[in-house]
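In the design runs reported in the main text, the only information available to the sequence generator was the tokenized backbone. The following block is the verbatim input for one such run; it is reproduced so that readers can re-run the procedure and compare outputs position by position.
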């Protein structure tokens, strides 16, 4: 049968100081039912939750844990209808102390552009560490300890890294001073000093790159699923709004989104540009899952190889109706081209 697995501190799930085995098993079943309820409320189907978050056969899981903490590792048996059909298997264990690390972190950057940079960390051991990019002006008066405390309070300690790092980062601001920070971290314990590196992004120059949007059409979801069942996960939507961004020359990064027409009322191009650039860059081809009876405007901006930004392009309003839908086979042909 299928099962759901998780590891959590015992104290976060059970109030009593010395919980019984029965209390742990009841708490484990509650975790599954809460998890399932949340995902169903967000529109996931039961079949998708069972497929993506439960398992069959042997399963290996790796978790980042805190030091000196008692955990429960749990496997909850779950039927295809989402109902727990037997008592969970619960194993409790307590983690030990964490030793300080002698890992030395050397920080640098390369390919510094107005809105992107590659962060580089060179290490002397494979001990885990955390790294972040902060706007310098907000931290210039902080001590190293205050910066570490701020990082952990706002970002947590889950995203640890081992070994050397080269990380291309987008979404930063032009003409801005930044502070790159890193420190060893394991099991909820800071294991090294704070390492830092300062740099500034150059001023942005407007790119002469041309940007336009080709509207492919909107296609009925049920008709597409009837021809290709791989789209069944999107059955809660009416239509697929399909479009692509074309640039000349080829863009280094594309930022795009489709907005309901009301959302863009009184929004000028500069505000729209900043809104788009705050998103993650994405592929040129776009599918938005939308409802019939709505109007959308497709918008895009592109960044050239020098890191400079184009003008914003926005389409005329697109009315999404069943009567004006495209042929489902045309959609599939386009996606396979």
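Verbatim output:
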């Amino acid at each position: 049968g299928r099962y759901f697995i998780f590891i959590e501190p015992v104290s976060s799930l059970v109030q009593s100081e010395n919980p019984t085995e029965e209390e742990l098993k009841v708490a484990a079943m509650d975790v599954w039912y809460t998890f399932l309820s949340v995902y169903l409320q967000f529109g996931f189907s039961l079949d998708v939750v069972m497929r993506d978050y439960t398992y069959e056969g042997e399963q290996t899981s790796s978790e980042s844990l805190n030091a000196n903490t008692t955990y429960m590792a749990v496997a909850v048996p779950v039927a295809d209808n989402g109902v727990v059909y037997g008592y969970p298997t619960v194993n409790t264990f307590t983690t030990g102390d964490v030793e300080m690390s002698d890992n030395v972190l050397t920080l640098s950057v390369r390919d510094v552009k107005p809105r992107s940079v590659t962060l580089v960390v060179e290490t002397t051991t494979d001990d885990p560490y955390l790294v972040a990019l902060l706007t310098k002006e907000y931290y210039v008066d902080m001590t190293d300890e205050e910066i570490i405390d701020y990082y952990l309070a706002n970002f947590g300690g889950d995203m640890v890294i081992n070994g050397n790092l080269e990380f291309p980062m987008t979404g930063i601001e032009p003409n801005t001073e930044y502070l790159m920070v890193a420190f060893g971290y394991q099991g909820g314990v800071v294991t090294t000093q704070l390492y830092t590196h300062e740099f500034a992004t150059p001023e942005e120059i407007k790119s002469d790159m041309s940007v336009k949007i080709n509207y492919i059409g909107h296609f009925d979801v049920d008709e597409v699923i009837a021809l290709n069942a791989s789209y069944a996960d999107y059955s809660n939507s009416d239509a697929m709004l399909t479009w692509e961004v074309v640039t000349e020359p080829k863009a280094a990064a594309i930022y795009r989104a489709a907005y309901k027409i009301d959302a863009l009322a009184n929004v000028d191009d500069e505000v729209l540009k900043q809104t788009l650039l705050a998103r993650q860059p994405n592929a040129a081809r776009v599918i938005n899952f939308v409802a019939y009876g709505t109007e959308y405007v497709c918008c895009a901006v592109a960044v050239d190889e020098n890191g400079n930004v184009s003008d914003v392009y926005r389409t005329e309003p697109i009315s999404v109706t069943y009567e004006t839908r495209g042929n489902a086979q045309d959609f599939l042909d386009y996606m396979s081209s």
